[in-house]
Structure formats: structure tokens, C-alpha cells
Specification:
By secondary structure, this protein is an alpha/beta fold. The chain is built from 15 helices and 13 strands.
């Protein structure tokens, strides 16, 4: 009999509610030892019904809480499950978990509940990975993409493709049984047409996922320029709050400040940097060097200048540093009149009056996201899954090459393609991959 596992499933700390859950055949019998409700007879318990009662920590100490029973296989893990909803608190939840373990439960490892759900065919491997994406999502786009995969969209597409490959393998078996030359040519044409359709489907998914890096991690936007051109004022105008200190004193910002916002489903990570200038102040020198590093490491750089004052030597030095980088010239202080020349790829703004900020955000997005992301379609944001799809395309290109004549080799490659796609849904025999995926889950999930 597989052990019954238990874990705290909500973050530790103070809160209104915490959830402790168990999964396994002994869940109900363990609960019966510790939970009492006047409305409940355990032999007649109603699944999915919340019971209000007392959880006994010892004979004289009890916690008023709610208990719910999920009868397998109609549960998250596919096994009998029990959940307790108790008052949030680190010590209280820990004590309840300890009582469950004292009475026969074992402490669950990371991702063990979801691992059991996978093993009991309640979720596929791609759906399990999407749960991690949902938990870790920091932008609307990343969340929507994870929810689509959790809803089975990727699994459905992969299964359709695998079914199509199975049909192709059946065609090949028929030619091996009846090896007439004309029949083989006809079958080859049919199989290659099938494989080309598969390629188109996989290519479409991969193309939708080209911006995976930005969906998962956001766009890093460095804000650079010489001192007192309005970099910190720009950050504040973008965020709508006074996040950075703004003064007339040069060198106020000595270290970088990073803040993020959601735009079109993508997280924009703005990095306000120290003004770049020659200085004898050692602390400020460190800040200036970090600013230069952000010019190289950012996905796009906002080069801020004061449009109401002639360009300084420091402004020109910063412009030299930007050569070869993806950048936008942000001509600030448009409310004071303009004296600087016109630049390629520029935009005029007033950070003080928040003028043209929306257009600046749009320009940042369009300069980095060169192909439209349609979150209504299937967007795969898991790097492992995208790598598998690209691997599948390589196998397809081998099949479609003119160098392979043997139907046996074509059959072998199609089987390899089928197995490769199976690494997405879990329909493969690679236990190590499965172990790695579920080790990334938090406790209680």
C-alpha cells in the first residue's frame, strides 16, 4: 500500500486561512482520529462537503476548522484526499501537520501531490509543468499562456500529431507486408504529405513561442544618460508613483533602481541608473560603471537627454556607448522648449507633465517584440517543451530530406518523432525527466 502523504499547501506565515492536505488510502482514517463534528459520522461522510468541527491537538486543546473529503479517483491526485482549512499561523499549521504525521501520515516531498496526479493520469506532464508556470507567473501574458496549457491545449495538439504519426506508421507496415514498388511510391507520397502537415503545426506553435524569454522574464529596459536629464523623473512618470528620489543635485542616483509593470501581457523591467559622468567620488564611480554595464545587458536602452539644453560632452560620450545597442533617444523636458538636434529613433516627452509616456511604452514594446504575440492562440512558455518541439522539427527535416529511401529508416524516424513528442505529455519512458520536473514544485503541491 502506498504511503499517505501530508503537507501544508499554503505559504507559511500569518493569514486568515491555511490549508493542510493529505492524500492516500489512510487519509480518512487519520482524519477520523483527530477531527470531530456533531454533523459528521465518518462512515456516512459526503465527499466534497465542508464540515465545521474541531481538530484535536491533544485532549484539551482543539482548533475550530473546516474539513473536506475528496473520494478517489475524483480528486486532484486520483486518491482519497482530506483537506483542513484552519486559521493561518506558522506554529498552528505546523502543529496540525505534526499530529497528522504522528497518526500515520508521511511528510510529502516537493511536488509529490502533483506527481501522484500525473501517475494516476489526472494530469499530463505538460499540464503539470503549466501549474509551475501559473504559480510563478508575474505577467498577465505568462499567466494566460500557462492557463491555456493547464487547460489541455498543448496536450490536445500533441496527441493529434501523435495519432497522425501512428497512421503513418500503419501505412508503412502495409507496404512492408505488400512490397510492390508502385504501392510504396504512393504510400511515401501520402506519408510525406502527412509529415509536412505535422511540420506546419509544430512550426506554428514554435513561432508563437519565439518571445518565450520576454514572456517569462520580461523586457529589461535600462534608463541611462548624463546627470540631471530626468531619468528618475521618467521612472516615476512611468510607474505613476514617486519611486526614485529626484533633486537638482547631480549624482543623486548612485545605484540602480529596478521596478516592473505589466504592458500588453509582458513585464517591463525598468532600471534607473546613475548618471554617467566623470567623477572623483568613489561610490558614484561604482554607480557609473554599473550604468555602463546595463547599456550592454539591457534588452533595450532609453537614452534620456534634456531637450531644453545643448548637448554636453557627457551626453555625447553616452551616445558613443550606445552604438550597436537597441536604444531609443528620449528627449525629455519638451515643456521647456527644444534646442537639441533631431535624432534617429527619438521620442519627445515631458516626465514632469507625463506627456507622451503611453507612446513611449508602446515604442519600447514594438522595438523588442517584433512579431505580434496572440495569447488567444497556444503559446508555449516552458523552455523544455519548446526545446522538444524544435528537436521534433529536426527529426521531421531528416524524414523529408531526399536522402532517405528506405521505408524502414523512415519508420524508425517517425517512431523517434513520436517518442520525442511524448516527452511533452509524459507518454515516454524517461523517468529522469519526470523526476526533474516534479522536483521543481513547492511542498504541498
Amino acid at each position: 500500500m502506498e504511503k499517505t502523504i501530508a503537507s501544508i499547501s499554503t505559504p507559511l506565515g500569518r493569514g486568515a486561512i491555511a490549508i493542510i492536505r493529505m492524500s492516500g488510502s489512510a487519509s480518512l482514517s487519520i482524519a477520523e482520529k483527530l477531527f470531530y463534528s456533531t454533523k459528521l459520522q465518518f462512515k456516512n461522510i459526503i465527499p466534497r462537503f465542508l464540515y465545521l468541527g474541531d481538530f484535536y491537538l491533544d485532549e484539551n486543546v482543539k482548533e475550530k476548522c473546516l474539513m473536506v473529503y475528496f473520494k478517489g479517483p475524483n480528486s486532484y491526485t486520483g486518491e482519497d484526499m482530506v483537506e483542513f482549512q484552519v486559521h493561518g499561523g506558522t506554529l498552528l499549521t505546523q502543529k496540525i501537520l505534526e499530529k497528522l504525521i504522528e497518526n500515520g501520515a508521511s511528510l510529502a516531498g516537493p511536488g509529490e501531490f502533483s506527481r501522484r496526479a500525473f501517475e494516476n493520469e489526472k494530469i499530463s506532464l505538460d499540464e503539470a509543468e503549466s501549474i509551475i508556470g501559473e504559480i510563478n507567473a508575474e505577467s498577465e501574458g505568462e499567466l494566460n499562456a500557462s492557463l491555456a496549457v493547464a487547460g489541455g491545449k498543448l496536450k490536445q495538439e500533441v496527441v493529434k500529431i501523435q495519432n497522425s504519426l501512428t497512421d503513418a506508421l500503419a501505412e508503412i507496415e502495409a507496404t512492408l507486408d505488400y512490397p510492390e514498388e508502385d504501392f510504396e511510391i504512393e504510400v511515401k507520397e501520402k506519408i510525406f504529405a502527412n509529415i509536412k502537415e505535422v511540420k506546419d503545426k509544430i512550426s506554428a506553435i514554435v513561432n508563437q513561442s519565439k518571445n518565450l524569454k520576454y514572456i517569462n522574464y520580461g523586457i529589461n529596459v535600462g534608463i541611462v544618460g548624463s546627470p540631471n536629464v530626468g531619468k528618475s523623473s521618467l521612472l516615476n512618470a512611468i510607474l505613476g508613483v514617486e519611486r526614485a528620489i529626484v533633486t537638482d543635485i547631480e549624482g543623486t542616483t548612485r545605484d540602480s533602481i529596478t521596478e516592473s509593470m505589466d504592458y500588453n501581457g509582458i513585464k517591463l523591467n525598468f532600471i534607473d541608473t546613475a548618471g554617467i559622468r566623470n567623477t572623483v567620488d568613489k561610490v558614484e564611480q561604482i554607480g557609473v560603471e554599473k550604468s555602463k554595464e546595463y547599456i550592454k545587458s539591457s534588452d533595450i536602452v532609453l537614452y534620456v537627454i534634456d531637450g531644453s539644453s545643448p548637448l554636453s560632452e557627457e551626453d555625447k560620450e553616452v551616445l558613443d556607448l550606445l552604438q550597436g545597442q537597441n536604444y531609443i533617444v528620449v528627449v525629455n523636458k519638451s515643456d521647456k522648449g527644444r534646442v537639441v538636434p533631431v535624432f534617429n529613433n527619438e521620442i519627445e516627452i515631458s516626465a514632469l507633465q507625463k506627456f507622451n509616456i503611453d507612446n513611449l511604452l508602446k515604442l519600447i514594446y514594438n522595438k523588442v517584440i517584433t512579431e505580434e504575440i496572440d495569447f488567444n492562440k497556444l503559446v508555449v512558455t516552458n523552455e523544455r517543451q519548446v526545446a522538444i518541439l524544435k528537436e521534433a522539427l529536426e527529426i521531421i527535416n531528416q524524414i523529408l530530406s531526399n536522402k532517405i529511401e528506405s521505408m524502414d529508416i523512415i519508420s524508425m524516424l517517425i517512431k523517434s518523432l513520436w517518442q520525442s513528442l511524448g516527452k511533452i505529455t509524459g507518454q515516454c519512458e524517461n523517468e529522469r525527466i519526470i523526476d526533474v520536473i516534479f522536483s521543481k514544485f513547492c511542498l504541498g503541491k
